[in-house]
Amino acid sequence: MTLFDIFALCAIGLSVVLAMMRGLVGEVLSLVSWVLSLIAAKMAAQPLAETVFSFIRPSALAAVAGFISGFAAALLLLFFLRSLLTGAIKAIGLGGVNRFLGAVFGLLRGFAVVTLAVLVCAFTDLPKSDEWQNAYSSPFFEGAASVAVPYLPEYLAKKVSYPSF
Fold it and tell me: Which UniProt keywords apply (predicted)?
């Protein structure tokens, strides 16, 4: 077991533990909250800049302030909604199921994070290192990362290479 394997195991384990603590509902609503908050912030940035932050010059700074405040407000509102829904899940007795499904979600997310890290590392010399070559899990994650290569822009896809492939 090399440092690569330990990193992969820790990343996946941490993801599982955190997702199990929050539950599937909390994890999914957290992802949805971030996406919806970004959309809300994009839509609210200009109106907020023109009204609430009109005193800020240059106007680009006012737009940034509008974006940040819109994002924070939407995220806070959705955080409270997530708290209510996870409380309701516990109240009806599905807390254990929610946590188990959260752990499964965390496992999948952990694999995705490590695979993404392996894909990014393909642009460096790390895959040629002894630690990487001797790792038990590197062939699995290299294979998973190679599945994503056809979806990359061509100039990036040409640069992805792993010694074992």
Answer: Membrane, Transmembrane, Transmembrane helix
